[in-house]
Backbone:
C-alpha cells in the first residue's frame, strides 16, 4: 500500500517538492546510514599554518554522498543570500572576501541552513577573484549545511579523537575500473526506463470529472463572494442594472460608465447660470426711480468685482439729483 501511495504521489502534479513523505522503511534506512562515520577514503588533508594539517571533505564527494543517501531528486540546495564583504586592490592584486548562506532541503520539507565563506588573494584579475571567492563560499556553505544531517555527510570530521584513529588506517584502493567510465553520449538503460515510465502514465485511466464531490463550504463561500460583488456594483451605480457577472471586463466597463456619468453631472452643475447678487442701494434705486441708460451703466459698474471709488459715488448722486 505504501508503494502505491508513493507512485501516485510521484505522478500527482499537485504535490510539490518538500511535501513528499518518507516511508517508515526508507526513513529507518536513511537514519542508519547517516549515523555511520566516514572512512579515510572520504577524508582529505591540506597543509595549514604552523606545519599542521587540516582534514576536510571535498565538495564533489559531499554531493555524491548526498545523492547516494537521499537520491538525486530527494534533496536540493539554494543560495538564500550572498554578500561581497570586501574588495581590496593592493600593489595591483585583488583581495576579495564573500559570504554566502546556503539552504539544503529534503523532499519531505526538512532543511538545514548554514553560512559559508570564500576568499581570493593575490589575483590580478578582479573578475577571477570574485568568481573564485563566490564559488568557494557556496561550496563551503553547502558542506556545512549537509554536515548538519549526520556523520555520513561530514559531521564526524569535527571529532578530533576520531580523526587521530582514522589517520592511522590505510586507505583502500578504489575499485573504479576504466571500463566503467562514460565514453558515449547515449544511455540506453536510462532512455528505456524513461520511455516505459511515460507509457505507464499514458495507459493509466483518467479519473472522471465528477469523481471528486464539490465541497459545500467552498460553494457557499463562492456564492457569498458573488453576492458581495453584486451588491458593491449596485451601490456604486444608480443607472445600471444589478448583475452577478464577475467578468473583470464587464466590471471595468461598468466602472467607466459610472465615471462618465459623474463627470457629466459635474459639468452640468458648472454650466448652470448663477444669479448675480446686487447691493441694497441698487435695489432701492430700482424701486423709487425709473431705470435710465446711465443708471443701468452705473448698476453694471456697481456689480463689478472691483470696489467702487469716490468718483463713482459722486457721479451716482449727480444722476439721482437730476436737473435743478
Residues:
Amino acid at each position: 500500500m505504501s508503494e502505491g501511495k508513493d507512485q501516485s504521489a510521484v505522478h500527482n502534479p499537485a504535490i510539490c517538492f518538500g511535501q513528499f513523505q518518507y516511508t517508515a522503511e526508507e526513513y529507518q534506512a536513511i537514519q542508519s546510514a547517516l549515523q555511520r562515520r566516514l572512512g579515510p577514503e572520504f577524508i582529505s588533508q591540506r597543509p595549514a599554518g604552523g606545519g599542521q594539517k587540516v582534514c576536510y571533505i571535498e565538495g564533489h564527494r559531499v554531493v555524491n554522498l548526498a545523492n547516494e543517501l537521499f537520491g538525486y531528486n530527494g534533496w536540493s540546495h539554494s543560495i538564500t543570500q550572498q554578500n561581497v564583504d570586501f574588495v581590496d586592490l593592493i600593489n595591483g592584486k585583488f583581495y576579495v572576501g564573500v559570504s554566502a548562506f546556503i539552504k539544503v532541503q529534503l523532499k519531505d520539507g526538512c532543511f538545514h541552513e548554514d553560512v559559508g565563506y570564500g576568499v581570493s588573494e593575490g589575483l590580478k584579475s578582479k573578475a577571477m577573484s570574485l568568481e573564485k571567492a563566490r564559488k568557494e563560499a557556496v561550496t563551503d556553505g553547502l558542506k556545512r549545511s549537509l554536515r548538519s544531517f549526520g556523520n555520513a555527510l561530514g559531521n564526524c570530521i569535527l571529532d578530533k579523537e576520531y580523526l587521530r584513529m582514522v589517520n592511522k588506517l590505510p586507505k583502500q584502493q578504489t575499485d573504479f575500473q576504466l571500463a566503467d567510465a562514460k565514453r558515449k553520449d547515449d544511455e540506453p538503460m536510462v532512455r528505456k526506463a524513461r520511455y516505459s515510465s511515460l507509457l505507464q502514465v499514458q495507459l493509466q485511466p483518467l479519473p472522471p470529472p465528477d469523481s471528486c464531490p464539490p465541497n459545500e463550504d467552498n460553494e457557499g463561500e463562492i456564492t457569498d463572494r458573488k453576492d458581495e460583488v453584486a451588491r458593491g456594483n449596485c451601490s456604486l451605480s444608480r443607472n445600471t442594472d444589478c448583475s452577478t457577472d464577475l467578468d473583470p471586463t464587464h466590471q471595468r466597463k461598468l466602472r467607466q460608465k459610472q465615471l462618465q456619468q459623474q463627470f457629466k453631472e459635474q459639468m452640468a452643475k458648472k454650466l448652470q447660470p448663477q444669479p448675480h447678487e446686487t447691493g441694497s442701494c441698487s435695489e432701492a434705486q430700482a424701486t423709487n426711480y425709473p431705470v435710465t441708460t446711465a443708471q443701468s451703466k452705473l448698476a453694471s459698474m456697481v456689480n463689478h468685482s472691483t470696489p467702487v471709488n469716490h468718483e463713482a459715488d459722486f457721479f451716482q448722486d449727480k444722476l439721482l439729483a437730476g436737473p435743478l
About this structure: The radius of gyration is 43 Å.
